[in-house]
Design goal:
The complex is a heterodimer of chains A (561) and B (164). With 561 residues, chain A is of the alpha+beta class. Among the domains of chain A are: 88 residues, Ubiquitin-like (UB roll) (Roll); 100 residues, Alpha-Beta Plaits; 202 residues, Rossmann fold, CATH 3.40.50.740. Chain A contains 18 helices and 23 strands. In chain A, strand 6 and strand 7 form a beta hairpin. In chain A, helix 2 packs across helix 3. By secondary structure, chain B is an alpha+beta fold. Chain B has a domain of 108 residues: Alpha-Beta Plaits. Chain B is built from six helices and six strands. The longest helix of chain B is centred in the N-terminal third of the chain and has 16 residues. The chains are: A alpha+beta (561), B alpha+beta (164). The interface between A and B is medium-sized, with 20 and 21 residues.
Amino acid sequence: MPKFILDGKEIEFEQGQTIIQAAKKSGITIPHFCWHESLSISGNCRVCLVEIEKMPKLAIACSTLAAEGMVVYSESDKALSARNAVMEFELINHPLDCPICDEAGECKLQDYAYSHGNGESRFNEEKAHKDKRVPLGPLVMFDGDRCISCSRCIRFCDEIAKESQLTFIKRGDRVTIVTYPGKQLDNPYSMNVTDICPVGALTSRDFRFKARVWELSSTKSICNGCSRGCNINLEVRNNQVLRLTPRQNDEVNSFWMCDHGRVNTYKFINAEDRVDSPYLRRKGALARSGWDEAFAAASSELKSYSKNEIAFIGSPYATCEDNFILSKFATQIIGTKHMDFIRHFNTSFGDNFLRQGDVTPNSFGAKAVGIFPGKGGLDLDGIIKAVKDGQIKAVYLMEDDMIAFNPELQEIFSKLDLFIVHATNFNKTTELADIVFPASTYAEKHGTIVNSDGRVQRLKPAVATFDVDRALEGMSLSRWDKFGTKFDSWAEGNKRDARSSWRILAGLSGAMGHKYKYGTAEEVFMDIAKSINAFSGLDYEVIGELGAKLKLDSVTKPVIA
Amino acid sequence: MALKRRKKDLTFLEKIYIPEIAKGLALTFKNMLKPKFTMQYPEEKFIPPPSYRGRPVLVMEENGLERCVACGLCSRVCPPLAIEVQAAETDREKERYPIKFEINMLRCIFCGLCEEVCPEEAIVMSKDYELAFTNRKDALYGKDKLLTPVKQLQDRINFLRNYK
């Protein structure tokens, strides 16, 4: 491989790579604003100027191709003084409004001003003023004053979202960004511009002023908006999820995620209608109960039906661990063959970039760990028909909303003698249920889900419940989490008495006289890896932060209806 | 062990202590005749100088609104985590304001770092030192207790401008 020398260090590169690319591959970051790994090169911010031997002038590292034997200095006096000068220039018209800017704390301009600025401005003239607080689209707010005209957002719309919606207008210090006449920044990936904006010019309207970024704890997780399984960070303050941001995984989502995933998939976690303890139906209404009481009630009720009168419905929203224990519980303890899960497809949601028509995160995994009818057992349609005919008298439903899926089922399912539901939030289905168990959401448990490509990825708890303690579970802690006490209104937030579905099922099986020996989700996964071929050789360590592929020849990919 | 000796032996006068006792009594009698500093608190109240750091308060402008833009720097810098700020949007020019601003006076250590870090001169240390609570809830000072008219805080603000 050809090599060049950067600050006295030999760096390997491939033909056609620029200096900044090759440096990044070797773990050296040359300061930059406008350059982005997956966007085209613009070269307008000039902050990546480096000194190259035998070149008359400084060159920008983002568009200069690396060449064999090139000697580059990014930290020489000449390069540094150029960088300081560029920083002074970038800051001429930038307002000093970090205190009211949402980007503060994760702002490139702020970071570089700290490391390369000279601390004061020599610009005594009035700064140029542009439009502030301009809603560019339903989810993105623009502040013209703060913009440094790097054009990342424009290139993102053109090249990644493939919908040209933004452009520069005017020239010189009056240059600003607008949407094309009659257009809005409303493509399904629009909020990614708020991540790539190196300053606070583009900010999320959903997260606007909700928190300062340094108050958030960040947990690596997976989006549950569709079966793509985009890697995300769950950002939490006071035990409330306040925003999701994409996390780089080149195998899945690169740097991006869609607006639906970012805005619509976390609010139910914080919602008021969360199921916060087990509920039993007493005199026609659901009433709070303790866990032992609910387990005893569910166990004695289940025992009063013959195994062919009970059907189990798993969930493509729940983890592999949850579904695995459900299938074990159904086949080994109850002995029924009637088992399936609901497939949620929305073909209009899918596109050829990230969004998938299967709008559940784990339908692949649910099937792979055994949620399908046994030999001679009924599938979902069969179960519904048998409930209608009265052959099935009891249904055990895990983490899904049947009635929202198909409102016609309301009448059919109200016929059931016993309807046990694991639910995260109260909904139309829990209205019919006889016993409701509070299930943890994807942000409150350890577990794995499998995306549509057969890639197993890890969920980690970011929100504490009675079941997972923030400190004991090794969850990420903000400064406020670390030093808060139960007397502080900002420390503990709203903790619910919810458990992972597999743990609920393990408790219930205990009440039925059969104890599972799993202590943690990891132990459940080890059992999955042992007993299911596709998962063999995998464990939480192997899956890591970026996931691992299933052995695909042993399972077939579910087909989108 | 070698016997430790004084550097200098005491003289006879020093040994009998009487001159020293007389000196001490002289000081006592002298001060008896001087003006008294004792205050009959709470009937009489101590008014501290501008450099005094009493409980932190929020500056209220003459239009009845706070200066604070809810940037959260005071909350970040506060060593005992006494301050909680929640921002919200307003139509005013500065875009944001604190919808909730709470200081837990049981946590506050009167260090004045909040005042030092504030970019808007919106939180200052007042002269109020009378803080007594009978339960934890009362110690949470919300905006209603924190907002103080700028006129009452003027000498602290002047002090800060001179010495900060």
